[in-house]
Write a structure and sequence with these properties.
By secondary structure, the protein is mainly beta. The protein has two helices and 25 strands.
């Protein structure tokens, strides 16, 4: 049978339309994104001469890049009115997994030392640590909300910015000032048994639920973070170069105080250990509730920061059964699920897809009363909505989470 011109035209249009839809779907699947894994809520800042700098650390996952490629990159901060092509502000400290960290005050993609490199996996994704040093730029106006941005080259030894990816979560800027407001803060320091170049995060709860209050790296990282480099006096004098020491900023409006100090691994990002306190007033008598010291630091004693991996002895026994919202959410490909048990129970934690089919069993054993966390890695699963259900004795709770590729 011979097709006429009209029929051929219709068939071609149909296949062109299918091809177009296919391209759209493919494009959506490889959309570039920057997903927060651990992103503190507060960062130190001030405009003009910012002589009270405190480093800010976060962990994030980049996706939608070329597979198995080596990218040059640096990280900065932007505000909501900045264009998608803006590079941002702030100095970088690159978290090298081998050797000392590298600090640069002039980040760029051309000169070695002003950028770092990352290697994507077979899906075009990368997860790692990023550190920003606040400067006197107008981006760091106290009270503003800023966003983290990663600037990358072409993944093929290029020296110009090709890709800029930004977090959807924002961070609040606070300045070191004893006044009580939503844009002021106080410095906190402590000395711990944590390994240099690991990371420390503070939480206003004992279980590490939700986003941290603040976070930075553990000294000594090998960089010069002194008052001569415009760092806060407490940091330059008592934190910089001291093994196990850390320094962070706290907002002055902090009703619960600091109730958890968490150590995370430089290499994997996983939780190594934590120290907790039930009311934010630590054993040494240090009170972290609604601090108002400004540049006068709160100092945690070594007896306060006794990091332990035994979650069942980190804090008092919980009073209620609870399943917490996973974090991050949405996630790609892993997320943390935390729960608490008021008494010994037979526990199951199951994950289901949107059709109610069981995907995996995360926990199936008898647990003592205490606080627990478990990582769910969905690397082999497609994007979509999933549910996780915790059952302990006669108690059960279910929550929803979203996997986004």
């Amino acid at each position: 049978m011979v097709l006429d011109t009209i029929s051929v035209g219709k068939i071609m249009k149909k296949w062109l339309w299918i091809l177009f839809l296919s391209m759209l779907i493919h494009t959506s699947l490889i959309a570039q994104s920057l997903t927060s894994i651990v992103l503190p809520q507060y960062i130190q800042g001030n405009t003009g001469t910012n002589a009270n700098r405190i480093p800010f650390a976060y962990r994030a996952r980049l996706s939608g890049l070329s597979a198995n490629a080596i990218y040059r990159y640096y990280n900065q901060v932007v505000i909501s009115t900045d264009a998608a092509t803006a590079n941002g502000a702030g100095n970088c400290i690159f978290a090298s997994k081998t050797g000392s960290f590298v600090r640069t005050t002039n980040p760029g993609l051309k000169t070695a030392g002003t950028y770092d490199s990352l290697t994507t996996d077979g899906t075009g994704a990368y997860e790692g640590w990023f550190i920003i040093e606040p400067t006197g730029s107008g981006k760091f106006v106290p009270g503003k909300y800023i966003f983290m941005r990663i600037i990358l080259n072409d993944g093929a030894a290029g020296s110009t910015a090709v890709t800029r990816i930004t977090t959807t979560d924002s961070v609040r800027v606070v300045k070191l000032d004893p006044a009580v407001s939503d844009s002021t803060g106080t410095c906190l320091r402590g000395t711990s048994s944590a390994s240099p170049k690991d990371f420390i995060f503070t939480y206003d709860n004992t279980t590490g639920t939700g986003r941290p209050i603040s976070g930075s790296f553990v000294e000594s990282d090998g960089t010069d973070n002194t008052t001569a480099k415009s760092y806060a006096s407490f940091y330059g004098s008592n934190v910089n170069g001291v093994n196990g020491a850390f320094g962070v900023v706290l907002p002055n409006a902090l009703a619960n105080g600091v109730r958890r100090i968490e150590q995370r691994s430089l290499l994997t990002g996983s939780i190594i250990a934590a120290a907790t306190d039930a009311d934010g007033i630590w054993p040494s008598g240090v009170n972290t509730v609604n601090p108002a010291g400004g540049t006068t630091e709160i100092v945690l004693a070594p007896t306060d920061v006794q990091l332990t991996t035994d979650v069942q002895h980190m804090s008092s026994k919980p009073e209620d059964f609870a399943l917490f919202q996973n974090y991050p959410n949405p996630f790609n490909p892993s997320t943390m699920i935390k729960y608490q048990l008021p008494q010994m129970s037979n526990v199951t934690l199951l994950v289901y897809d949107i059709l109610g089919r069981e995907v995996t069993t995360l926990v199936h054993e008898t647990k003592k009363a205490g606080y627990y966390s478990v990582e769910f890695n969905a690397a082999s699963l497609p994007s979509g909505i999933y549910f996780y259900k915790l059952t302990a004795g006669k108690s059960a709770q279910t929550k929803q989470m979203i996997l986004v590729r």
